[in-house]
Amino acid sequence: MQHQRLLIQIEGAIIAAFAMALEYIPHTVGPSAIEVSFGIIPIIIYSLRRGAAAGMVSGLIWGLLDLVLRGLGNGSVLNVWQGLLEFTIAFMVVGLAGVLQKPVQASIQQNTKVKTIALLWSAAFIGTFAKYFCHFLAGAIYWGSYAPKGMNAWLYSLTVNGGSFVAGFILNGIVFGILLAMIPKLYLPKDMFLKVQSEK
């Protein structure tokens, strides 16, 4: 049990570092402030492998890395509360996609592909929505002064973060479906994947 816990923690730390590395890929859509966060992808996959709690810890590590490596240096932190919301909570709640861990893994074991794809899209929705809902709140409360003149701060935040959510959700859902077809073992711990293989 101790060895298994350590393995999960190490895997979570590696996933967080990988998510951070993906954030350095240019991810702004066109001339707008809409962004697609590629780091969400490995965090959700890890959450579906190891559960929501482990996914949220990995997301928190990712958020702290992003805060130190990017946020503090480029003026993305306005105050303590905004930093807490956008660089700890927003990144951490991506791991909530792990609430679908058992249904996804059971569906893969039963080889019900249509159901599995639907569950993966649902996980993409949960993780992506949770993150951008936090950014939406922060955008309206803390970044409202950056809205175009005469535009309501809440509407501005909804436009930017809603657009980022939609773009990210679609990208994540497509990637998860492709990975399911190519490498289904990504969604299963090693021992469970070996069991599935032996049953085929």
From TrEMBL:
<keyword id="KW-0472">Membrane</keyword>
<feature type="transmembrane region" description="Helical">
    <location>
        <begin position="55"/>
        <end position="73"/>
    </location>
</feature>
<keyword id="KW-1133">Transmembrane helix</keyword>
<feature type="transmembrane region" description="Helical">
    <location>
        <begin position="79"/>
        <end position="99"/>
    </location>
</feature>
<feature type="transmembrane region" description="Helical">
    <location>
        <begin position="119"/>
        <end position="143"/>
    </location>
</feature>
<protein>
    <submittedName>
        <fullName>Energy-coupled thiamine transporter ThiT</fullName>
    </submittedName>
</protein>
<feature type="transmembrane region" description="Helical">
    <location>
        <begin position="163"/>
        <end position="183"/>
    </location>
</feature>
<keyword id="KW-0812">Transmembrane</keyword>
<dbReference type="Pfam" id="PF09515">
    <property type="entry name" value="Thia_YuaJ"/>
</dbReference>
<dbReference type="InterPro" id="IPR012651">
    <property type="entry name" value="Thia_Transptr_ThiT"/>
</dbReference>
<dbReference type="GO" id="GO:0015234">
    <property type="term" value="F:thiamine transmembrane transporter activity"/>
</dbReference>
<dbReference type="GO" id="GO:0005886">
    <property type="term" value="C:plasma membrane"/>
</dbReference>
